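Study this fold:
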Amino acid sequence: MKKLKALSLLTLLAAFLGASTANAASRYAVANANWNATSTWSASSGGASGASVPVAGDTVYIGEASVNRTVTIPSGYSAACTTLNMGNGSASSPYNTTLTFADATSSLTVSGNVTMQRPSYGSATDLIALGAGSMSVGGTLTMAYTASSSSSGRVNEVSISTGTLTVSGDLVFSAELVDHSQLVFSGAGTLNLGGAFTLQNNLGTLTPSTGTVNFNDTSAQTIPIGVSAVTYNNLTINNASATGATPSAAITGTLVTGNLSVQSGTFANGGFAIALASAKNFSVASGATFNLTGTSAMVTVSGGGTKTFGSTSTVNYAGSGQTVSAETYGNLIFSGSGAKSMSGATSVAGNLSIAPTGTATASVGAGLTLSVSSLTLGGLGRINGYWGSTTATTATYQNNTYFAATTGRLSVSTDTRSTPTLSVNNSPVTYDGSAKAATVSASVTGSVSSILTGGAATQTSAGTYAVTANFTPTDTTSYSSLTAASAGNFIINKATPTVAVTAGTYTYTGLAQGPNSYTTSPSGDTGTATWSYDGVSGTTYGPSATAPTAAGSYTAQVSLAADSNNNSASSSATAFSIAKATPTATLAVNNSPVIYDGTAKSATVGISRSEEHTSELQSLRHL
């Protein structure tokens, strides 16, 4: 029965895998028609039409045969496949291959790669006419070729009017002439590029119109600038890597004709100058970062163009000896080296950080007072007030490490000093009956005072006590003072006392006797005592909580229950003995006195022992 079940499971698994393989089909366009028509598709190149419409998981071929072919994604249709292959790179005649998107409601999702094979004969074009539609490529879009050619007019092209092309992988131009690989905008469309923009042989064309190219990788990206016939209109940065997106050369108004926007992540100028076209704008959104390296200065605009910095944006002058543009910044960083020259009308809505790395200094223009919300020097937040070098005599806080020798100063409105932490450094201790006090240390150098342990100077009893203290840092410009600040807990653990039985000398009396007292260290244990007596060395007794009576050899042990300051503890078994008694006899007349009556009288005598056993003796005649 088990074998039959196993075979059944294997059969089902094989059927499932077979079905999965069957679902991953290849589809070949054999007619000039809509994507969603079965008459468009065949299961083989040049085969009979009528195959199912391609879906996610399928590999699609358009124009692989030596014939002109056009496939249209109609209005309102969402097409899908795993891989898209367009064109025949080795055809001996000029054949055109076209994938057309009908309108803005036409879409295609390719989970893998798109490969466009450049025509190899005559003048012909492999074209993705995206128009107003949308296309998403999960892998790489490659404008490739099979046969090398030095002839123009053999083109791979993607055209966009107002649509959106999103490529999660790389965009590759495998061009041998400038017109072989082309991305052509004719309107305000968008290219979102999540990988590298690679121009093999440094050839290719990007025609910008009013379109936008968005670099949005999670790894570093290089933006080709001034390469072949590549020109941008709006350039948008959303690169989430630490390095960010960086231009390959200086940006001019002819190479980027529109706006430059750092929307999220990081954009680095690579040390290149950036000068936008007349009336075009530069912006760094809140949360985004713009790094300027080398000796480069801020982006320049003209003809009414603007520069805008979000309230939580960051601009980092990370080069050497740079001039700081007079702007209203969000956050501003001076890293790298050399003096960063600040002129009038510069303000910082957030934090100005000087030399978090490197040796940069702020050179505030002579006689100026520039406003910043908060100040960080060498990575440490600082106190509010006026800051400058020792040359700035009106500065309350003077520092020549981070400020160049000028008379200018910064007016810092917000105190961002770090708050030191205090900690008890002598806990736990063990109860011993004496008073104990916490000692406290701080995370930075300074003076600790007014230490209170559980609200008092000292504590004696076992327990956990909250500790507070005052603290004054040595560097009061970087660290705040503390008053009655928590330092944690001071713990006095219970002691485990040493218990010793106090044994005496005992002689048989007929009564229960033995040790019944003890000492403890530390003293003062109030735990309930439980005694145990046991006979040893041939004496049979116990163990019993009652002391023995008979003569013999014994041990006594006392156990103490825990109290508020002590753990439970026991003494060792302490030896003691009860010696035999030595009895004594006492003779006594026991019928005297009597009253005279004229008759002869005789005394009677009794004898008694010290063990309280009494016997009568015979009467003795009084002679």
